[in-house]
Q: What sequence folds into this?
């Protein structure tokens, strides 16, 4: 409880203040509210959420870091059988020639499937093919920043390894 004219520093986590960054691969926030822009930060906007006493506010940090020059998925095409999973790896290409792994949604990466009922991708890039998926090709799209990348997924029927015939049941 504060009276008129009084103030209180809420920046310390000892007062119950919690800080989160919308992109911890570019900007982190200490428990005391100190904002740190990482050396590999990509140019863009990062939102800092501040929670205290069931209230929340959002601050904006405009990062002038490395420029994103491209986006790629480690595999350009992929073949999977029905019911199988595969972990995608998504890399951002930066203006200094380096690459940075942005596979997780924590980094702002989004995934979409052209047919999500047949092959779905979760927020961390895990691709899952339905066990009842028909054979065919599906496009998986990835977005990070202002760039997109795609991968063609070919769904194959499982190989028949052996066939058992029971002569007692033949007619």
A:
């Amino acid at each position: 409880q504060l009276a008129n004219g009084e103030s209180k520093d809420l920046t310390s986590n000892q007062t119950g203040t919690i800080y989160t960054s919308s992109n911890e691969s570019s900007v982190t926030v200490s428990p005391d509210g100190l904002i740190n822009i990482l050396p590999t930060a990509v140019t863009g906007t990062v939102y800092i959420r501040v929670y205290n006493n069931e209230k929340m506010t959002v601050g904006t940090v405009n990062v002038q870091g490395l420029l994103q020059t491209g986006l790629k998925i480690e595999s350009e095409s992929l073949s999977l059988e029905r019911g199988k999973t595969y972990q995608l790896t998504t890399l951002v290409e930066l203006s200094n020639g380096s690459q940075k792994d942005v596979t997780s949604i924590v980094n702002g990466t989004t995934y979409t499937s052209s047919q999500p009922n047949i092959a779905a991708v979760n927020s961390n890039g895990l691709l899952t093919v339905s066990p009842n998926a028909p054979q065919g090709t599906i496009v998986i799209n990835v977005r990070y920043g202002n760039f997109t990348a795609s991968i063609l997924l070919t769904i194959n029927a499982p190989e028949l390894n052996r066939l058992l015939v029971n002569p007692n049941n033949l007619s």
About this structure: The two ends are 88 Å apart (CA to CA). The mean pLDDT is 86. The longest strand covers residues 147-156. The CA atoms of residues 81 and 156 lie 5 Å apart.
